[in-house]
Amino acid sequence: MPGFELFSDKERKEVNDVLDSGVLMRYGFDAMRKGHWKALALEKALAERMEVNYAQVVSSGTAALTIALASAGIGAGDEVIMPTFTFVASFESILALGAVPILVNVDDTLTLDPKAVEQAITKSTKAVMPVHMCGSMADLRALKSICQDHRLLLLEDACQAIGGTFEGKPLGSYGDLGCFSFDYVKTITCGEGGAIITNNEKYYSNADHYSDHGHDHIGKDRGAEGHPFLGYNFRISELHAAVGLAQIQRLDEFLAIQKRNYLILRETLESIPEISFRRVPRGGEESYAFLSFFLPNVKMAKKVHTALGEEGVDGCFYWFDNNWHYYREWEHLIHKKSLGKLPKEVHEQLPDYSKSNFAQSDEWIGRNVSCLIKLGWTESEVQDKAKKMAKIIRDLLK
Ligand SMILES: *Cc1c(COP(=O)(O)O)cnc(C)c1O
Predict the structure, then answer these.
(1) Which key words tag this protein in UniProt (predicted)?
(2) Do domains 3-250 and 252-397 have the same CATH topology?
(3) What pLDDT digit, counting tens, does each position of 231-260 carry?
(4) Full-model pTM
């Protein structure tokens, strides 16, 4: 990732189709559009590639998470379990519906710890939202069994792991619903965009209506459509969808490059005995979007991250201090800062995160460094990078 590194004539052709017809809207204008339905074609291609019955393409990954929760009836006062290590979109989507984000520890997979999930379940819990961070997945088998026992929704955030699999199934298709982001820095990009996938017809039709003002999309005339429930505008434009349509057809090409580059980096770093790698749950295959490893302690991880940056090895992240991805820096959530009043349920049920103890998460995230695997690297560039990284790390460990 990211997919923009390899833009080609394929993306240009799809975008030009849309500009030639002049129809930038995904619905209606049938007579003008010269047969081009890019959002619809992207949904078809995505559903096929992800081996599910339905896909709904929308304006962003954050929108996709919000719509997925809404489509399953999650609302005010419902608790949704999410990890301490994710992107801020996780709690934003939950709070947008008046639901309550319940933060839970991650383990050495860098994703939800199933034992911690079980302990966090209350009578208000309605959903579990694992986030497959940095190209690898949560233990979906364990989480599915917990969800079945407690009748909870399993919603996979696969925004950073498109193309990975669990027990042979594409990530996003294992739970009740799955979400992707096609924002500018993701493996498949539209500029801005996202998608919901599911095999559940009701969730799908709810998502379809909800993302377009509650319109039921029955009949040809938009003015005559019904609106069975309240919705919003989370539509994607045809221009964005056109880019995504070209990109999704290149997913396997991108995954092969990611895997090649990842393996070169990993094989070199494996020669350093003090380093260990994130655990991939049994049955899982990563998308190879990042290589994530652990140093022996927090101090060393910070040192390694700083030294890599100073020596010009770009694209390595120290999430522990990152204010988008780790709970320690989410001061807006911790201090319940909102522009208007928060829903009563959120105020009453939201744990006081300023007093929370996530020592287990701190242990793993504090020792972790994650390196983005770029698509644009040539084989010899990765080899040089790997050697340089290994030397920097070895020198620091001496
Ligand atoms: C990118 C991302 C999102 C949100 O996607 P946007 O399209 O940027 O709104 C959600 N979750 C994760 C894990 C992400 O990486």
Answers:
(1) Aminotransferase, Pyridoxal phosphate, Transferase
(2) no
(3) 999 999 999 999 999 999 999 999 999 999
(4) 0.97
